[in-house]
Design goal:
Elements lengths: L1 H42 L2 H4 L3 E8 L6 E2 L1 H14 L2 E15 L2 E13 L7 E13 L5 E10 L3 H11 L13
Parallel strand pairs: 1-6
Antiparallel strand pairs: 1-2, 3-4, 4-5, 5-6
Length: 177
């Protein structure tokens, strides 16, 4: 009985070690793909970025409606190009990977800096994202669904700006200035 318990314990330890190695391998794989994706984004290569998406991609960006399908993602990229918005810095860092059969959920953080027409200073943001990757027959992965959102609260920033404005002077009811 003691031998059986020892063998079971060793199997549990071995499987947890193997799982953690797989997790770190997947993190490294996604981080490498993210690096290439970020370089394409900074270069403005929206067509090159398309290779990472499944044809039936569902994208759920912050502050925008859901985008369904590769053609809609291409159109969104074209609209960004036409807007004159350029990405000057972009990083993605995988923090967690959850594997489930032919799918992998990647969770991570991002930082981005963009130059926006009409703004003197670049705009920077940071937040988190989640990608659902689907394994392809050739061993590669494509994004089946993605979402991201900011860690900054624009309404809080507006409140701060508002509270820093000089309050208007109240006129006394009898004052006729």
């Amino acid at each position: 009985m003691k031998k059986l318990l020892f063998v079971l314990l060793m199997l549990i330890v071995a499987s947890s070690v193997l799982y953690s190695q797989d997790d770190s391998d997947m993190k490294a794989k996604f981080n490498a793909m993210n690096q290439e994706f970020a370089e394409m984004m900074i270069a403005g290569d929206h067509q090159g970025m398309i290779k990472w998406y499944a044809d039936d991609i569902i994208s759920m960006p912050s502050y925008q409606p859901m985008i369904r399908g590769i053609d809609a993602v291409k159109k969104a990229g074209e609209m960004q190009e036409q807007s004159g918005v350029t990405t000057t810095a972009f990083t993605l860092e995988t923090t967690d990977v959850i594997e489930a059969g032919t799918y992998a959920v990647e969770i991570g953080t991002y930082t981005i800096t963009m130059q926006i027409p009409g703004m003197d200073m670049p705009w920077s943001d940071h937040g988190k994202y989640m990608n659902l990757w689907e394994a392809q027959d050739d061993g590669s992965y494509k994004i089946k669904a993605d979402t991201w959102n900011t860690d900054t609260n624009p309404w809080m920033d507006m409140q701060k700006e508002k509270s820093q404005e000089k309050p208007m002077e109240k006129k006394e009811s009898g004052d006729k200035k």
